[in-house]
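Possible regression after last week's pipeline update?

I re-ran a chain I had predicted before the update to compare outputs. Posting the input and the new output here so someone can diff against the archived version. Not blocking, just want to make sure nothing changed silently.
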Amino acid sequence: MINDYSYPRGLSVNELTGRENFPSISYNPSRDITRRINGLRSNNPDEEVLQMLGGVSGAFLHVPAHEDEVHMFVFRFDGYVVIDLSCGFGWCGSPAFYSLSGSVIKDLYESKLFLRDLARARSSP
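New output (post-update):
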């Protein structure tokens, strides 16, 4: 199911959504990307640092349209099974909530990397 949250005009989800309680968005890609590249370079001086760019617009090309492909919306994350039952594109609140979930995933990922590096440092002579 793909929803169009801007239709029908005058009664759409976007027009009836209360935006006052959306989480704030913190977005500073230049600083964050630079910090990440510098960190990778410092921690891995003999390795090549590569970068991949992507965007939400590319996601439309990867939305399974056939019933035999809906299994692609089920995945495991941190011991949980996540099932996404819809593809909601165009909701006015998406950027705020994607930013929030992205921040949570980033923090979980970075804390696991920190714990892994700490364990390596403790085990090395």
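Follow-up from reviewer: compared with the archived run. The CA atoms of residues 32 and 38 lie 10 Å apart. Marking as no regression found.
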